[in-house]
Amino acid sequence: MESTEFTLDKLREDLSGLSPAEHGFTYLDLECRPQSHGRLSGWILSVKDLNDVAGMPTTLGHAERAYVAEETDPLLQELIDAGALVVGKSAAPELGLRVDTEPVGLPHPDNPLYPGHTPGGSSGGAAVQVARGLLRAAHASDGGGSIRVPAAACGVVGFKPGGEDLSVQGFITRSIADTATLHGFRPRARRARIGVLTDPLFAEVEVAPHMLRAVAEATATFEGAGFETVAISPYPQAAATFEAFQHIFSRRLAGLDFAEGYAEWIRAKGRRVTDSEFAAARAHAAQLSEMLAQEWEVDAILSPMLAFDPPRRGHFLALDHQANFDEQTRWSPWGSLFNVAQLPAISVPWPVRDHPPVGVHLGSLTLDDASLLGLAQVLHP
Prior knowledge:
Organism: Corynebacterium aurimucosum (strain ATCC 700975 / DSM 44827 / CIP 107346 / CN-1)
CATH class of the largest domain: Alpha Beta
EC number: 3.5.1.4
Domain Amidase: 35-174, 188-373
Protein name: amidase
Shape: globular
Helix content: 25-40%
Largest sheet: 8 strands, mixed
Pfam families: Amidase
CATH topology of the largest domain: Amidase signature (AS) enzymes
């Protein structure tokens, strides 16, 4: 796939007649021009509407939070300096707090594969733009599955790099090669022992048969390529990991000046986390990757990304806050493990007969980012 397939003129043509719910943009500037030339010259990107690009509005997923940014976030400036052209902002839920994309006072993007249903979140606008073929790639971020959930829901590629925090920035793309280019990685495949995990980790939920079938077929693909696979089960400390995730995730919202609804509920949860609980959560996260490697004795974990197909728009927000949170976890009961462990993970689309593609998920225990991308290319060349 060449960047010449994605031009401003082509984007203008493709956007003609699409509503904000269909294209996923909260802001568009089709008159912009590249500021420099470099390795990303010709790439047209959107930026998630939680991050700043100078001169563009940032809403943080809530119309009343909107402001015009004076500076560009460092990672985004690096992309621009490398020649990438940022044409606008992609929709996200308020503060990126949910796995749907229903910002307050702004249009709610629709899933191109499942009309009337959520595209997932929190990087839902980005996934819609890539899935519709409007963009070759879109900037995104992931603090609990927010790149990988919408990628799986919309049938595209979502990679969460390793990092030093619960949340990291990345991209939703149409290919692993494009992901590697944007991150500056060179994928390399090496021998790896793969654990296959289909039992939910962090919630009780019945996993849809076609999700299980996709993982079984992906397992067979790995075995056919000469990789060793082994079935694994949830580890004994899974409940402690999910508690650590909740403490770290909510504590960072404790200092919000303005919050209401679901955001206020998360803020209140964060304010109840004590210093000792927060320290214990961070300590658990720090030793999690080593503990998992010893427990499972594998290099990577293969699982579904989602337990069932995307629900209708409004499904999560129709629930009370605790039930909303619980339902989000049931939809994606594996992904946040790799946020707590600060390890790379990726969702790739897998074809399913008489059904839109579904996301199969690979998370690393011992592999670096480039090696995980190389492993994922076995499933999605």
